Amino acid sequence: xxxxPHSLLSHPKYRADIDGLRALAVLSVVVFHAFPTRLAGGFIxxxxxxxxxGFLISTIVFGNLRNDSFSFLEFYQRRIRRIFPxxxxxxxxxxxxxxxxxxxxEYQQVGKHTLGGIGFISNLMLWSEAGYDYFNTASESKxxxxxxxxxxxxxxxxxxxxxxxxxxxxxxxFAGVACGIALVSFSFNVLSFPEHAQAAFYSPxxxxxxxxxxxxxxxxxxxxxxxxxxxxxxxxxxxxxLVVAGLVFINDERMFPGWWAxxxxxxxxxxxxxxxxxxxxxxxLSNPIAVWFGKISYPLYLWHWPLLSLAMLWNNEExxxxxxxxxxxxxxxALAWLTYKFIELPIRAGNSGSIPQLVGAFCLVGVLxxxxxxxxxxxxxxxxxxxxxxxxxxxxxxxxxxxxDYYQERCDFSDWTTGKNKGSIDAACTATSGDRPVYLLWGxxxxxxxxxxxxxxxxxxxxxxxxxxxxxxxKLHPDSKNGTDRxxxxxxxxxxxxxIKKNKPARVFIVQSGDHQLTDWKEMARLVExxxxxxxxxxxxxxxxxxxxxxxxRDLKVRRDYIGEGLDHKxxxxxxxxxxxxxxxxxxxxxxxxxxxxxxECLAKVPSYDGFDLIALDYGHLTPAGSDFxxxxxxxxxxxxxxxxxxxxxxxxxxxxx
Length: 658
Known about the structure:
Helix content: 55-70%
Distance between the termini: 82 Å
Mean pLDDT: 87
């Protein structure tokens, strides 16, 4: 196959309703990012984009194959003209804005994600980042997070045209092969839950089926047009109903994509197959406003998220007020139109001679981003190093650099970098010898945070075993009803139960983030007592929203010891319930709230430890200083077999510092 002149290539007939569908997709995503509570399912717009993209690109390839005019060179030149111009502009803007307004750690991350963007591996990069979740609040601090979907598309188009050419030349059954690949991809997506939820979201293997749906639709409309032309109004109405249902019923608590992704993908496919003459397509999707937004949908998608994310970073990691977010959305729309009008259209209308310049611009972006990474964000830049932002940055760095050792990550059944079940933990975590009594610490990441203080203060006459897995509450029975227990959680809990039966620890400390009232701890206590021990249930720790460092940063000049602002009062209520439930039982309930809180405020600041003097490094995970302090004030008596050590009083310590 040889390259043919650009003007002679077969191109699908323009459909205004598909631009309208693009508008629905991009506006759903923009509203979700700017006002998530208003449209909780707006992120499914990306799935609609996948179907549209698969349909349009496959239509082009099929048409050119049928005309014997397909060229790989021309295909990828078209992709470059379509993708590169707006992407280069947005990436350069992010690097420029970051240079003047981001702290070193933030700017280094932008440099890293810029390279991921130009290499079309953003999805793989985000997937590999430790403990990362698309719906986590940390996503707001990643200005280039949204490039993951673009990466999936381009990864798909590396292999898809080649597959189509091979199938066409060999006269193989395209529909059968494509359906088989889509089924494998969809199965990978569904079977990834709950253990590999991040893989299901970011892996191309779990997303390709969505683009293949578009490819199958293109094939059907090209070769089975009569069949697809039936009941177009019904197809359109049903398709819109499925999309609306997805927007309404899907949210970040669903196992997505999973089975739920069938709503937006099937809905989009039905809307496209209905054709431009179906009533909804003609009256709603083809109206001029929808078409206009559809034409700027790609640059709008690129611009909106960096603006919202950078604004959050510059606002000391707090979500800007509603009017500010609305203004940023309007700015994104304006920038998208300017990008479309003065950059995209002129380049698309040019000849292939513009390709070297576009590739050169892409390489330039990489050249600019690389030193930002290796120079650690260029900390010597002359930026406004606001005291508040520097304060927040030190806690962000601490969460990235110091926790593995402090929290004993080696005793976690879950791999912090992938979220996968490791299958085992370091033998030293539960190694015991001799006749010294054994204590077991069992819990989730809040137990990990407390483990530092326990190890630091435990009596040398006691051996401490630790079985703690992040995100996994201690349970005697897996959650078979909902099927939400990850394999790492099951492995962790089964290991802890087996340890209790074999090693008969004198004390078992239970520490978890919340929902203590949902577990029958009396049943757990009976298991421990049957094995010659006692159960010590450590109550919930104080929690602040969005996070303690952010709340303190709002007014650094007033360093209060006790803070009620942003305090999660549900935790206080849970603590009261636990008092009542286990006051006269064999469950030894230890209230942390009683020691650290007064009225509607809780202790936020403790004696300095390596410069980090807040009790929590985020919403509620203890700093090393906080861990040490909490253990000294609440658990010291339980760490000595004789129980004779006096616990410290929080108010006495605070008073002695003044």
